[in-house]
Amino acid sequence: MTKQYPTRATRDDVAREAGTSVAVVSYVINDGPRPVAKATRQRVLDAIKHTGYRPNGVAQALASGKTRTYGLVVPNISNTFIASFAHALQQEALDNGLVILLGDSGDCRKRELNLINNLLSQRVDGLFYTSVDRHPHIELIQASGTPFVMLDRVSPSLAVNMLRVDERGAARQVTTHLLSHGYREVGIICGPLEMLNAQDRLKGWRDALADHGIEERAEWILPASYTRQGGYDATQRMLADGPPARALFCSNEAQAIGCIRALAEHGIKVPEQVALVCFNGTEESAFYAPSLTTVCQPVRDMAKAAIAMLLAWNGEVKLQEFSHRLVIGESCGCGAVQTPRV
């Protein structure tokens, strides 16, 4: 009968069970550096199973200098786009034998700083990072020597690893599609104006209006948080100030949902009375009523690139750009519906 181990089994226990030396057990667990005969290897594997032995991850990390663990810091995991990106990143990490530790700052800069410090103290092998605002804690991470990838645009002068989509170009394209329906009174629910991505999306909206000779109206530029509540509140402000815009570009999917809710409360139908498009759509965009016309980012490809960038980190700063994709739904006034593949 196999001996029972009420406490955590050790390599000594495995060696006794298998009738080998501790060194041989280590060679089997680490797949080297010395070869082990097939029959001996099987005895060790059987002993590991019988004893319930689990390698000490802390000890292995101390020996190798690697934890096989990465940190992910995001502003708010309730944002559907961020959640879809985090999911794709987690799946890619698992495929590479890695662990992702999630840090959700809840849109709080102070909490974001605490999360970064905590993850660095855990000696993660790297960080994936989207900041709450345009002043990310980059110097702190650089001072620690920890490799990291920014998942959102920051100033190129910072010289950091970055994944990005041409958000200005994407905003221009989706707004141009909206204008192709003949709308002339077009507003925008943008993100907080201090954020670089909000500035990019606002510029893209302005580019499209300028292309069509349409003057922007200040009362239809509505800054808001990237949340359903933000889109709802911005729409209520617009409706309180006078007649609504005939069409709207919402800067993310959550804002669009909040906007549609606010319009519905006033008996305003989308797209019959107010048409809209949005940015950063997810697979959820196809299941709203009406389905959303949106710009999608290739989150799976971006997740693969982010993991590969840190695994191959050699100190060289890299920037990788990805193409966006326009997905047509019903909210803009089109009848055809495509299911987003993100």
Please give a quick description of this structure:
With 342 residues, the chain is α/β, with parallel strands linked by helices. 42% of the residues lie in helices and 15% in strands.
What does this protein look like?
With 342 residues, this protein is of the alpha/beta class. The protein is built from twelve helices and twelve strands. The chain has helices spanning 11-18, 22-30, 38-51, 57-64, 80-95, 109-121, 138-144, 167-179, 196-211, 228-241, 253-265, 299-311; strands at residues 69-74, 99-104, 126-129, 148-150, 161-165, 186-190, 221-223, 247-250, 275-278, 293-296, 319-322, 325-327. The strands form two sheets. It has a six-stranded parallel beta sheet with strand order 2-1-3-4-5-11, sandwiched between helices. Helix 11 (253-265) links the parallel strand 8 and strand 9 (275-278). It is elongated and about 85 Å long. It starts with 10 loop residues before the first helix and ends in a 15-residue tail after the last strand. 41% of the residues are buried. Residues 60-64 and 336-342 have low confidence and may be disordered.
